[in-house]
Structure formats: C-alpha cells, structure tokens
Amino acid sequence: MASSFNKNCLDDKIALITGGGSGICYEIANTFLKYGATVYILSRNKEKLLRAEMELNKGLSSQRCFSIPADVRKFDQINDAVDIILKKSGKLDILINGAAGLIYR
C-alpha cells in the first residue's frame, strides 16, 4: 500500500522515543527513520537497546538512530538523556513516551 506521506517529511526532525528498544515503539522509530528523522531510543535494557539501534540503522545511508540507556522512572536519567540529545542534535522536535513506567508498591 502506498503511503500518503512525503518520503522526506521528517527530514531535519529529531525524535526521542522511550521504550524504543522493542514492540510498538521500535516500529514507530523504524517508521520515523524511513521518513527522514533522526531518532533517539531509550530503554532500561542496554543490550536490547544496542541490538535495536544496530537493526534500525541497517540500510540507512548514515547512522540516524542512537540509543541511550535510561529508566523513565528516574528523572535524573531522563534529564541526562535530553541533555545528550540537545548537545548532539541541538534540538528536540518530537517526543513519543511509550515506555512502561510501572511502579510496584
């Protein structure tokens, strides 16, 4: 099925996707990359995150997916992740907060 979106409609956009190491958020990251965005994926599981980053960058002409291990339940880790993105890319245009921040009591 043909897409109704312009192939480069997300060029120059910077996206942060929490939970991007797997599942729905992985597919969102993949779609954003197909339309030209630079994508940062966050997850607590560093190994899964690195595998996802490698897979998502396959077939791209340059690396546009970057992983940052972080726990969305810890403000300092999220703050540090945003600082990394701003230092590297200079801005943040899109936030998809799809990580499960389950808190057990």
Q: What does it look like?
A:
It catalyses: a (2E,4Z)-dienoyl-CoA + NADPH + H(+) = a 4,5-saturated-(3E)-enoyl-CoA + NADP(+); a (2E,4E)-dienoyl-CoA + NADPH + H(+) = a 4,5-saturated-(3E)-enoyl-CoA + NADP(+). This is 2,4-dienoyl-CoA reductase [(3E)-enoyl-CoA-producing]. It comes from Nephromyces sp. MMRI. InterPro entries: DECR2-like (IPR045017), NAD(P)-bd_dom_sf (IPR036291), SDR_fam (IPR002347). Pfam families: adh_short. This protein has three helices and four strands; from the N terminus they run E-H-E-H-E-H-E. It has 105 residues and is α/β, with parallel strands linked by helices. The protein has a domain at 9-44 and 79-99. A four-stranded parallel sheet has the order 3-2-1-4, sandwiched between helices. Strand 2, helix 2 (46-57) and strand 3 (65-69) form a beta-alpha-beta unit. The longest helix has 15 residues, at 75-89. The N and C termini lie far apart (46 Å).
Gyration radius (Cα, Å) is 14 Å
Estimate what percentage of residues fall within beta strands.
Answer: 15-25%
Number of helices: 3
β-strand number: 4
Largest sheet: 4 strands, parallel
Mean pLDDT: 93
Order of helices and strands: EHEHEHE
Q: What structural class do you assign from the helix and strand content?
A: alpha/beta
Spatial gap, N to C terminus: 46 Å
- Low-confidence spans: none
